[in-house]
Amino acid sequence: MRTKLTYTLEKPLKFKQQLLQWSKQFEEIAWLDSNNYHQEHGEFDALLAVGAFTAIKTDYHQAFATLQEYQQTTKDWIFGYLSYDLKNDVERLSSKNHDGLDFPDLYFFQPQKLFLLKGDQLEMHYLNMLDDEIEEDFTEISNLSINQIETGKPETENPESKIQARISKEEYLQKVEKMLAYIQRGDIYEANFCQEFFAENREIEPFKVFQDLNDLSGPPFATFLKLEEHYLLSASPERYLKKSGSKLISQPIKGTARRSQNSEEDIKIAEELSKDPKEQSENVMIVDLVRNDLSKIAKIASVNVDELCKVYSFKQVHQMISTVSAELDDGIPPVEALRATFPMGSMTGAPKISAMKIIEELEETKRGLYSGAVGYFTPNGDFDFNVVIRSILYNSAKKYVSFSVGGAITAGSKPEKEYEECLLKAAAMRHALE
């Protein structure tokens, strides 16, 4: 079904920049970039999928069943996203909050052309009907001048296009207090509470904003996704779920601390994060939730915590990450592994259903793709999906720009400190837009 050619690159980093620039001509683009961040479970340095041969987009009704049929029918590479609101397909829940973005709940496409980069090796996988274009495209990409990146239209300068918060700081603090009351009453142990920042009547050049955001953050799960008028510009540091053969890997993040330009202070901040009892408690609660979710689809006694509460450093922040693994039970389809664990524990809470109900009550914005997942399936049913955080969402038709940030609320949370953590997480997105 696909023709594959392999090339050895003289300048892989330069070619990567040329490749992203070349992709601008397509209506459907999925660019996944590890930024060469050292991670044990990475398969590729970068992937690019362009041009939809086939595609599906749907609301949450029977969304996972639709995706399973599509994945099993194509038996090919497919790229796309699961929005947070697919929770309504998994459980008897609803999403009624404000939605300025208007993204489909699920969108996947089968690319015409696919590029896989690992070290100095490039694999080009083209549908057989297009295989005569492989060498021509490679030559065109290699000859692109990366010094002439188009910046597109200038950003709109009217006052209405300024970034604003959906809720005020005072409202945020009041809502966290309400969540703490639910915790004290015993309804939940932990829940992830988020707020939206947005701009209306705002035109941006998505490639430029993505490049700025990626330069600021350099995360292992950076994503540029364009599906018609819908754009995701993501600097996500978090893996949701990966399947390799029968092995499943989930790497939830809970626990955040700022970076410092002073190296001694920076080391101290990371050490303090690693020993912070509140941050450890948040992380352990979510690890337990992930273990519980994985146990629904795993072979008996195969769920393990490979790494607990380890601190990793990124350009903007230190993060506390755990790694949980499991062996997928026999006969369970790949899509079912996603459905059984969705939405991810790090963006919901514990108990999961109660947390999602309270999140819907207290948040003002429909999450949509934020805190959902973006990734891909391989022809043999393996997959890898990130968590959509540290991300800018853009509807170019509506000229609506949005990014959301949040954090885990536990019994030990201080509302003012939680608000400060939100601003810390928002810094890179705000900087890339302003």
TrEMBL record:
Would the keyword Transferase turn up in this protein's UniProt record?
yes
| Domain Anthranilate synthase component I N-terminal intervals | 78-116
Q: Tell me what this protein is called.
A: aminodeoxychorismate synthase
Keywords linked to the UniProt accession: Transferase
Q: What is the lineage of its organism?
A: Bacteria, Pseudomonadati, Bacteroidota, Flavobacteriia, Flavobacteriales
Task: Write the Enzyme Commission number(s) for this entry.
Answer: 2.6.1.85
> What SUPFAM superfamilies does this protein's entry cite?
ADC synthase
What GO biological process, any one, is recorded here?
A: folic acid-containing compound biosynthetic process
- Which residues belong to any copy of the Chorismate-utilising enzyme C-terminal domain? 169-425
Domain of life of the organism encoding this protein? Bacteria
Q: Which GO terms describe its molecular function?
A: 4-amino-4-deoxychorismate synthase activity
- Keyword Transferase attributed: yes
